[in-house]
Design brief:
Distance between the termini: 128 Å
Number of helices: 7
Strand order of the largest sheet: 1-2-3
Number of strands: 3
Largest sheet: 3 strands, mixed
Strand content: 5-15%
Order of helices and strands: HHHHHEEHHE
Shape: elongated
Length: about 180
């Protein structure tokens, strides 16, 4: 008994201008073999749709967001990205009015260093410190930021210029 598919392929190869060179022969298919050794092309009992047709195979492709989260976790970038989020979304954390007068300078060892335009805004930010830390913990996790260090404006001493005179002698007033 000859295989009609094999005959067809032989005829096509003979008539082709550039036939492919196949080095491996396909294993012979046994029709009398048990079901477990046969190639699985159709599975009886597959779920069907409402119209009776076979449902589409799901592709099971992971989403881009889940892949990015996995890479961030594997590389240990969680805290660095959280710090960048705090610096970039400071206005959302404290509100536009306070953000206009305050600025996060740096983040180091779970501490956010914040500078303010004047001491009134520094005091206001100290009152809101607990709520800001709660917002950060809710968004990024409890162990990302532990403290806010709020600094008022830096006072500049004018030790230069024509009108400055170096103090003479002791500056104590005992008498």
């Amino acid at each position: 008994m000859t295989d009609p598919i094999q005959e067809f392929f032989q005829r096509v190869r003979k008539n082709a201008k550039n036939p492919p060179e196949l080095t491996q022969k396909a294993p012979p298919m046994k029709l009398d073999a048990p079901a477990s050794s046969r190639p699985r092309s159709f599975q009886p009992g597959r779920p069907t749709g409402k119209d009776g047709r076979r449902q589409r195979r799901s592709l099971d492709i992971p989403s881009l967001g889940s892949q990015i989260r996995r890479e961030i976790g594997q590389r240990g970038w969680e805290h660095e990205l959280a710090h960048g989020w705090i610096m970039g979304n400071w206005e959302n954390l404290v509100g536009p009015k306070i953000a206009a007068h305050t600025k996060p300078e740096r983040i180091k060892d779970q501490i956010v260093y914040v500078s303010c335009d004047n001491s009134n805004w520094a005091t206001e930010l100290r009152y809101l410190q607990r709520q800001i830390l709660q917002k950060i913990a809710a968004r990024l996790g409890p162990d990302v930021i532990a403290e806010l260090r709020i600094q008022g404006p830096k006072q500049h001493r004018n030790y230069e210029g024509r009108l400055w005179v170096k103090p003479q002698g002791s500056t104590d007033t005992y008498g």
